[in-house]
Amino acid sequence: MSAFIADWLNILLRWAHLVVGITWIGTSFYFIALDLSLRAREKMNPGVFGTAWQVHGGGFYQVEKYTVAPEALPEDLQWFKWDAYLTWVTGFGLLLTQYYFNASAYLIDKSVLDLRPGEAILISLLTMGGGWFLYDRVCRSRIGQNTALLAIVVFLGIVAASYMLTNVYSGRGAFIHVGALVGTIMACNVFMIIVPNQRKIVASLLKGEAADPKYGKIGKQRSVHNNYLTLPVLVMMVSNHYPLLTGHPHSWLLVALILVIGAMVRHFINRHEGGDHFREISWTLPIAAIALVIAILMTAPRVDPAMAGRAVADADVTAIVRTHCVACHAATPTHEGFTEAPKGIMLESLEDVRRYAALVDMQAVKSEAMPLGNETGMTEDERHILGAWIAGQ
After folding, report:
1. 176: closest CA among 72, 275, 264, 96?
2. 86, 92, 98, 100: CA torsion to nearest 10
3. pLDDT on residue 307
């Protein structure tokens, strides 16, 4: 695939992914907030669990939720599913065009594990499919009947998968696959559980039968899971822009911290919207803050002893940059994946390197984000030499 076509596919898929993803997230946030705002009233229709009064856009709305389902199926029933389906489809399309078609550059790092592109792609597919299967089995087991225990098991499962992925893929490949795994779980919750259960309830109504409340209960459980996973998965999906996350030697621990931060913030917002007093939910904010501070400290810049006081000749830096950087970062790149320098950054001279020294330091010294997939085999000593030269400028 030519770089020009790949770029346009990437742009269109990313645009579509953002649009449908925002819609799905907004729907999830709204319905959880709606559910928590329901109140029992003196006068309610038969079978109604609770109602909520809301105001938006200059209008007032009254919303009802049935304990199980209304006695008869309304003619204009609206289904909320396509935003979830299309979010996964466009996300997988991005994974395909960005990571599968360019597996050697974006997915594989031979210093981590020497894989062939086909092997890397197979591991990707098995991780997403197997992750959903294991998650679903746990939810259906006795563990799934205990909310706190289930949350811990799911958390540990995602962290374990993150550890595995960081020992298989490049830094950015591992992080994006944690997001893909969680996103697959969320989409499958809708496709495999929530919507099918809703269809079972609809089928009962069409037969004139009473709907089984267990289907709504199970659907609600998975919907809540999706809601709590939303904030962490958003960070995973933009992680390729931040080498301080993807390039960290213990990035799987950062995944664990991101899960904690996202879950705590989401719980605080949910319970606040549900009417809980601040003192009842304030415990979530210190936990999120502590996790954030740990993440910041983990990623804080450190001076490598190998760089301290090391004299580096300009010629050595020029040789390193020409070997490992200029194939992509040039006015006319020779790398088959690029028709122009990524982000417009060219490193064809020492003045260029000085101009972008902070970015080079972050991407190629303090992390191994560059070269992509370490295709050129940049060594640790070369990174130390480059870092020492930048520190002396």
Report:
1. 96
2. -160
3. 60
Say what the pLDDT of residue 303 is. Answer: 65
pLDDT digits (tens, 9 = 90+) for 240-274: 888 889 888 899 999 999 999 999 999 999 998 88
Label residue 367 by pLDDT band (50, 70, 90): confident
How far is the CA of 77 from the CAs of 2, 188, 203, 266, 298, in angstroms? 45, 22, 13, 29, 50
Q: Taking the model in full, what pTM does it have?
A: 0.86
How many other CB atoms are found less than 10 A from the CB of residue 368?
A: 24
Tokens of 341: 């320098």
Question: Helix (H, G, I), strand (E, B), or coil: what is residue 31?
Answer: helix
- Residue 190 CA to residue 5 CA, distance in Å, equals 32
Q: How far is CA 251 from CA 247, 297, 299, 303, 393, in A?
A: 7, 13, 9, 19, 30
Listed residue (98, 87, 265, 104) closest to 183, CA to CA: 87
Nearest CA-CA partner of 159 in 260, 291, 292, 266: 260
pLDDT grade for 1, boundaries at 50, 70 and 90: low
Distance of alpha carbon 322 from alpha carbon 307, whole angstroms: 21
**In this structure, what DSSP letter does residue 39 have?**
B
At 134, which amino acid appears? L
Rounded CA separation 361/213 (Å): 57
Cβ atoms of 6 and 101 within 8 Å: the answer is yes
Q: DSSP 3-state assignment of 65?
A: strand
Residues 6 or more apart from 240 whose CB is under 8 A from it?
Answer: 172, 175, 176, 246
d(CA 99, CA 95) in angstroms, rounded, equals: 5
Q: Is the dihedral of CA 365, 368, 373, 377 positive or negative?
A: positive
